[in-house]
Amino acid sequence: LLLVAAMTDAGGISIDLRHAGPIPLDVRFSCAAGELLALVGPSGSGKSTVLRAIAGLFRPDQGSVTCNGDVWFDSTKGIHVVPRQRRIGFVFQNFGLFPHLSALQNVMEGLLHVAAAGRRQRGEELLKRVHLSGLENRRPNQLSGGQQQRVAVARALARDPKVLLLDEPFSAVDKVTRQRLYKELMDLRLQLDMPVILVTHDLDEAILLADRLCILHHGKSLQSGPPFDVMARPASSEVARLVDQKNIFKGTIADHDLATDQTIFTWGGLTLSARHRPELDVGKSLAWMIPTADVRLHSKDNPPSERQENTVSGSIAEITRLGDQASIALSVDQAPDLPLSLSIRMSYVNRHHLKTGDGVTVSLSPAGIHLME
After folding, report:
1. Helix axes 116-129, 145-158, angle to 10 degrees
2. How many DSSP H helices and E strands does the chain contain?
3. What's the confidence (pLDDT) of residue 6?
4. Are 201 and 40 in contact (CB under 8 A)?
């Protein structure tokens, strides 16, 4: 295992993590002070291992970890700062509260660096900060899941941490409570001048909360960036699948149209246009994708204009209702084995009496089409 962390500025942390063992790791990301970065990926992708390495709970064979200029681990110099001296705030998936201690006593366990006379007052201040005033004397089994999570956050902040690590912190609470905790975390973040690293397998949660995403799979970081950029411009078809893009296909570069500033490519029996990518050679095979929101369905009374780009005809293969939205799978006439997905409001389906087998026309936004190496 090789873990190398270097600081790009005095108020953040960046990680370079490698492992050549049975569970290989090749992870790189950075997180600035005041920023929330979400590590997203399926189970077994290495997310929690990365947090444990930062916290010092997992000791790598080689490398270094530095935060705000402080060296926490350097194998070449024989430095290994123990977890309790790393100034880490860590909120675990199951909260990790001491069941025999009250909420206040749990928080005070994180205040051992504070003079004994001031611990109670500081603990009460932290519980007030997470909206738990009046519940100081309750034990964990007398608190709801959301209240236990707040105690865990207060205890993590009690250490005056340099970085806050959140390992699936919302997975043990119900949906309604989770939505409330999201709001509280976003409010709390405005008060924190430290990197916050959130581990989650829930992509919607990551997009809602994070300033940047880092996509992990099989122990490897595949792409890092703002949520919209990662979703709309995935680095590869693998990333596109991991961020739940439905329309991922193969195509071939046919030409570059300088007059329209577009790249032309073929898909099945169709010729389509996308944003100009002059670095892609004509004849090159690649992957391409388009978000379902960039697939526009044309009704019979509003057909595409003659100038409409990327017009595609086909028939409805499937309609699936998802709340007030409908997911439609379209069998494309010139690529029948490659269903195209789009999402529209269920009211539109009902108003136009759409059903399986209906012939329809859609247009694919050139700006929405993303070509991937």
Report:
1. 130
2. 9, 22
3. 34
4. yes
CB 366 within 8 A of CB 273: yes
CB neighbour list of residue 94: distance below 8 Å, 6 or more residues apart: 172
Alpha helices in 264-368 (DSSP H): 346-351
The arithmetic mean of pLDDT across residues 103-118, rounded, is 91
Which DSSP string corresponds to 332-351?
A: ETTEEEEEEEEEEEHHHHHH
Hey, what amino acid is at 255? D
Does the pTM surpass 0.85? The reply is: yes
3 state SS of 230? helix
**181 within 8 A of 208, measured Cβ to Cβ:** no
Is the distance from CB of 15 to CB of 25 less than 8 angstroms? Answer: no
Instruction: Give the CA distances from residue 87 to residues 109, 256, 271, 368, in Å, rounded to whole numbers and listed in that order.
Output: 14, 54, 57, 44
Q: Count CB-CB contacts under 10 A for residue 82.
A: 9
- Tell me which residue has tokens 């090789």: 2
258-299 pLDDT, tens per residue?
999 999 999 988 999 999 999 999 999 999 999 998 999 997
Give the angle 369-370-372 at the CA atoms, nearest 5°: 145
- Spatial distance between the Cα atoms of 134 and 253, rounded to a whole number of angstroms: 65
CB-based contact 75:61 (threshold 8 Å): yes
Distance CA 349, CA 355 (A): 8
What single-letter amino acid sits at 49? T
How many Å apart are CA 335 and CA 269, to the nearest integer?
Answer: 7
> Is the alpha carbon torsion for 47, 97, 71, 75 positive or negative?
negative
The mean-pLDDT minimum among 41-50, 225-234, 256-265 falls in 41-50
